[in-house]
Fold this sequence. Notes:
- With 110 residues, the chain is mainly beta.
- 4% of the residues lie in helices and 40% in strands.
- The protein has two domains: 3-65, Thrombin, subunit H (Beta Barrel), CATH 2.40.10; 67-110, no CATH class.
- The chain is globular, with a radius of gyration of 16 Å.
Amino acid sequence: xxxxxxxxxxxxxxxxxxxxxxxxxxxxxxxxxxxxxxxxxxxxxxxxxxxxxxxxxxxxxxxxxxxxxxxxxxxxxxxxxxxxxxxxxxxxxxxxxxxxxxxxxxxxxx
Length: 110
């Protein structure tokens, strides 16, 4: 099942960098990545849930996954934006020497 096509939300308010979004189906978990914009180029991360239908973080699409960044040997001496996109004008990162890992990892024993 593709979670993002099943779980759409609507922006209720924007105050600075805080976006309140209403979901009629189910709330995305904390740290989920949401996408919006004409080409889904705007990325929002869920940081809090106001109530049973609102998350803080236009029409919004739940990607069903967390914010991720590239890691591995292929990332050494490279420059990325906050979403893991290469911004150093070099070639794209090769999957054989790097992989994507969630930026929020549960602590061992927590």
